[in-house]
Amino acid sequence: MKHYTREELDCYRNGDMNLFSRIICSEHLKFCRSCHKLLDSLKEDDALLDELRGKLDRLKQAAGEANKLNRFPENDC
Question: Could you state, in order of their start, the residue ranges of all structural domains in the chain?
């Protein structure tokens, strides 16, 4: 049985496979625990990255607000 690579499964889940390949991969995933686990780990990686991006966005926003509070008027000595 041919196993799919991370790159191939990434294409599968992102819809970048052609229809025929997607059908074959989908059938393979029904029976191959190894490839299904790899696909699940890719989804978990995405969830972690989304969480980190959200935290980074909140930190950037907080830093921007802090910078606004620390600004001095231009004409003030």
Answer: 6-70
Q: How many angstroms separate the first and last alpha carbons of the chain? A: 76
Burial 31-50, CB ≥16 within 10 A → b, else e: ebeebeebbeebeeeeeeee
Entry pTM: 0.66
C-alpha 9, offset from chain centre = 14
Secondary structure tally for the chain: helices H, strands E: 3, 0
pLDDT digits (tens, 9 = 90+) for 20-55: 999 999 999 999 999 999 999 999 999 999 999 999
Angle at 39 between CA 32 and CA 5, to 5 degrees: 80
> Contact, 10 vs 40, CB < 8 A?
no
> DSSP class of residue 17?
S
Say how far apart CA 20 and CA 1 lie, in whole Å. 18
